[in-house]
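Write out the 3D structure for:
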Amino acid sequence: MTEPSSGYFIAGTAFVAPPLAPGLYVVATPIGNLRDITIRALETLAAASVVLCEDTRMSARLLDHYGIKGRRVALHEHNERAKADDIVARVASGQAIALISDAGTPLLSDPGFPLIRALAEANLPVFPIPGASALLSALVVAGLPTDAFAFHGFLPNKAGARANAITALKDSRETLVFYESPRRLDDTLAAMAEIFGERQAAVALELTKRFERVHRGTLPALAAEFADTETKGEAVIVVAGAAEASAPDAADWQADLVAEMAKHPLRAAVDEVTKKYGLKRKEVYDAALALKAEK
């Protein structure tokens, strides 16, 4: 166990941080409102021998607010692979190290994955300290189904790659969640409106902050609302999944099958109708055999 390196303050009252077992602690921090921090997170950050920060200047606001004075080291996408071996060695030697991002839960569109992978491969302990997450905060206020959802982080910057990524998700039935920068929000909503069509969606801005707001509507309506508008801070976009396709009418596809069989061999006719109507091939093949036997 490590000795407590420091304490922390809440509303002017000092608290002593209990010692930590050796390991890496993945600590969720507030996404805007500094009060959205857990007691366990404060104890962990205060007792850790080192706090790994995505940006030490950004993290200083939170750590200084709660009087946490421990050592801070930058760990971001440009240096995390180079620093991984050293951090693994520190944990192996018995240190307790905390990992935080600029806001929210680390690794969710934030640095940290190579480090966690390296610790897992070394069979060293990694502890989650749960807390705030923009992904979950937006999802629960969007007014869209939450029983199944998929998080896709930031879409590609370039228009063509972004459109391809959205198109690949066109048939996904689960609710879709994305992060987006204020500079690209209008272009992304326009691309989603074009590809996804009239789906319900929500755009969450300034979550947990004073000017928090959630805009709900169809994608075309939201695209029009945010057209040529630059917002402040990252946005979370939540989009309804694809509607379940209704089963094709049996009379329609069987009539089509008769027409295809008049023009093509049986197997080719079956393949054509199966593809056109999205049916199981065996069902169409059995129907084709029955039609052939009737002749």
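The chain is about 40% helix and 20% strand.
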